[in-house]
Amino acid sequence: MAVVKQFDELVKICVAANASDLYVLPTQLGFVVRYVAGTKLHHLKDVSLQEGNHLIQHVKYRSEMDISDARRPQLGRMRYVIDQRVVHCRISSVGDFLNRQSLVVRFIYEAQDITLRWTDEGAVERFYQTVISHNGLILLSGAMGSGKTTTMYYVAQKVAHHKFVLTIEDPVEIATDRFLQLQVNDFAGMSYASLLKLALRHHPDIMIVGEIRDADTARIVVEAALSGHLIISTVHATSMVGIWYRMLSFGIDPEVLKHVLSGIGNQSIRADDAGSLVDFRFLTKVAIEEMIDRVEA
């Protein structure tokens, strides 16, 4: 029972901090337990070799994973209810080169439990107005963990009562019954590209694509946006100009891209005394064209 109580306490600490991940990682003397909240890694505790292994085995057992296999990668999931707050947990384990186990718990919160504070509410409003008044392609950039998915969900939820919203993610990061949520599973042949083709047959009003990672996905997203759908997605870029060049690197024609882009945004997150504060900037169609003219001059 001690290990059950220990893990429950760890989960409570993480959920109270709106942590995204809990880590149990091997060290020379045992294991270290850490969590990520915002963009910061926090130390929780150091535990002995025996205590750490018991903790990992307990989580794997509750997640219906193979507790007899300490080396091969495994995935599992569980559902927690803490003070009437539902949290979905996605579990990943793998052994290192010394066959020492490691474990990561990703916390997936219900949409209504996710909040952000933005430095510029006007930028969020421009994003919302673009969603309700345009089709085409909206792209966001920013560092991992900066809250891009939360911002997309926040805006999409405001129109979900009268629009059909479908998401394709790898993995799903926020749970909500307001959207149809699909998750990438390459082992099952459910890639971003294949799910995009399937999603178009569902005729959603808005599609949220977690990330454009390759040329094939970029091409399908652009074609869908050209056909009258509204697509909201993210790309790996450090700025709004970087979004433009990232899409060009995927082989998208500049004129086509200029035509299809309805909005672009960049997001970063920082900590203040009240928690996490998000810097969000957003450009609409006219401002995008002006930016492109400057960088292409």
From TrEMBL:
InterPro entries on file: ATPase_ComGA, P-loop_NTPase, T2SS/T4SS_dom
Gene Ontology CC terms, in alphabetical order: plasma membrane
Coiled-coil ranges (or none): none
Gene3D superfamilies (alphabetical): 3.30.450.90, P-loop containing nucleotide triphosphate hydrolases
Family that this chain belongs to: Belongs to the GSP E family.
GO MF, any single term: ATP hydrolysis activity
Source organism phylogeny: Bacteria, Bacillati, Bacillota, Bacilli, Lactobacillales
Signal sequence extent: none
Keywords for this protein: ATP-binding, Nucleotide-binding
NCBIfam families the UniProt entry points to: ATPase_ComGA (NF041000)
Domain of life: Bacteria
Protein name per its UniProtKB record: Competence protein ComGA
The organism of origin for this protein: Weissella soli
